[in-house]
């Protein structure tokens, strides 16, 4: 562990721990509006439950503990404090033998990061895997539930192969990068609704302020989960899905055009960053219109 | 419609991922007590209206994503900021070390007259969890001659104080412009209210518009 060589296995191990802690933080707070990810899985991964080697859960615990230089009685002490102040323990987990859904998601993301060292883990990937895993793990068919982890991993890998460029900083300015997508969305808007486009220009409402997140996360932070699933159904079934995504973003802007035309900079920023409750079908219909 | 004549100041929050920037901001702007927030992707935006020294101030606060991938996006906002909140997590030594990095970005990308404060968040931590002592934070702040606060978004400690302190020093720094704006507002508000009355009368007269 003291080997200072940056290529040493231990150095890699510590680097991985940093990634793991980041993933851990993000998966624990995955889709906090629903309780699903905090619940135990119905089908435990027995290899993990009975693992002799270090599980990710243990690894996170050790890493957090080691970083703290704490004594042996650390657990005892915090428990006392905890009762007194009823503070939620940041690193609480389900009892041995049970795993929460978020822990499965954590494993998927960690393995993805290990398999793609050039890219690693980028915040936001958690928001992409979340709905995918949910669909499999909450299926009424027990067999699908049982294989949710593997299926979600497979689908996530495939989807990432298509959208990974928006997670890579150095590709921002490439043809497939996020900047090109944002520019295309604004150009589309300009061709569909010049007045609205001018208004956004005049207020200096840059696409980076809202479209950046819309595109990077495929809108998963903008709508409640059932709406995201509906939206993704249409999106993924489309052969030209990323052009369609641009149309959807455009439709979303146009659907609130009256408010945007009347609003000042702050209210418009708020509107676009907290998109109002809207029937997704309405957005999809509008997007199909725009496409023509 | 008088609100469009308010004085606006622009603040920015920077710091490592997970130190609680969004939490602090939600506490301050919305008095939101929920402990879980999704990770910020790119940039987030909130507004809070306050009266400071008898002046009505609208504070625009830009909340940035802490992870490196988003730095190219978030760096574009430094230029617009009048005040910056530098946040670290007192339970995370790395986030304190990285304050150096954030300071570097500020000197590279923010305007020269930008005002800063340093905030150590999560002061609700147990003593055993604390990794960065108060003295360390204070020393760093002193060295750079910026105010320092230990806050807890969770327990709502010092959050308002920190933001208001920054707003005050930004106002002090831009006193001349703000006084000018205030004068402007005084004049405009008067005109505005007159215009409002006339517009109403105009509407009664079959919608004719009366120009001043």
From TrEMBL, chain A:
Name of the protein in question = TBC1 domain family member 13-like
Q: Which gene encodes it?
A: LOC102810392
Entry's transmembrane regions? none
**Source taxon at top rank:** Eukaryota
Q: Which SUPFAM superfamilies match?
A: Ypt/Rab-GAP domain of gyp1p
Domain (Rab-GAP TBC): give its ranges. Answer: 1-239
Task: Say yes or no: keyword Cytoplasm present.
Answer: no
Q: Which UniProt keywords apply?
A: GTPase activation
The record, for InterPro entries, names:
Rab-GAP-TBC_dom, Rab-GAP_TBC_sf
Which SMART domains does the annotation name? TBC (SM00164)
A Pfam family (short name) is RabGAP-TBC
Give the originating organism. Saccoglossus kowalevskii (Acorn worm)
Automatic annotation (TrEMBL), chain B:
Q: Gene3D superfamilies under this entry?
A: P-loop containing nucleotide triphosphate hydrolases
Arranged from A to Z, the UniProt key words for this protein are: GTP-binding, Lipoprotein, Nucleotide-binding, Prenylation
Under the heading Pfam families, the entry gives:
Ras
Q: Which family does it belong to?
A: Belongs to the small GTPase superfamily. Rab family.
State the name under which the record lists this protein: Ras-related protein Rab-15-like
Q: What is the lineage of its organism?
A: Eukaryota, Metazoa, Hemichordata, Enteropneusta, Harrimaniidae
